[in-house]
Write a structure and sequence with these properties.
The chain is mainly beta and 120 residues long. It has one domain. 4% of the residues lie in helices and 43% in strands. It contains one helix and nine strands. The protein is globular and about 45 Å long. It starts with a strand and ends with a strand. The relative contact order is 0.30.
């Protein structure tokens, strides 16, 4: 798990407040008491939103003290899906997994490109 530098500090007020997917990509709205940000992925193979309590195995290495956007190198959703023989997306070395965390929800994203992060 590698924290992605966003230029925005994370704290316990960091929350995912919106997810919007369309043919132009995925937009995740993230709020903190210090900032509002938009995280965009142009090409998305898949995404899932889970309650943070469903990802407790990650919190030792990945938590709001370490950041709020991460690249998952192993042991994540992609690896879980790769157990299925017909999961074609996971067979590509180009597809990476990213994880955005908040105090209540977390979103996993499978994309060939890293996110673009802007402040609102």
């Amino acid at each position: 798990m590698i924290a992605i530098e966003t230029g925005l500090s994370s704290d316990r007020s960091t929350e995912i407040v919106g997810v919007n997917w369309n043919t132009e990509g995925l937009k995740v709205s993230v709020f903190s008491k210090q900032w509002n940000a938009c995280v965009r992925f142009e090409w998305v193979h898949g995404f899932r939103v889970l309650d943070e309590s469903d990802l407790t195995e990650f919190w030792q290495h990945c938590n709001l003290l370490n950041g709020w956007v991460f690249e998952v190198l192993s042991g994540g959703w992609r690896e879980l899906e790769n157990q299925r023989e017909n999961f074609i997306t996971g067979k590509s070395d180009k597809v990476k997994e990213f994880l955005i965390i908040g105090t209540n929800e977390c979103i996993s994203i499978l994309s060939e490109q890293p996110p673009a992060i802007s402040v609102n």
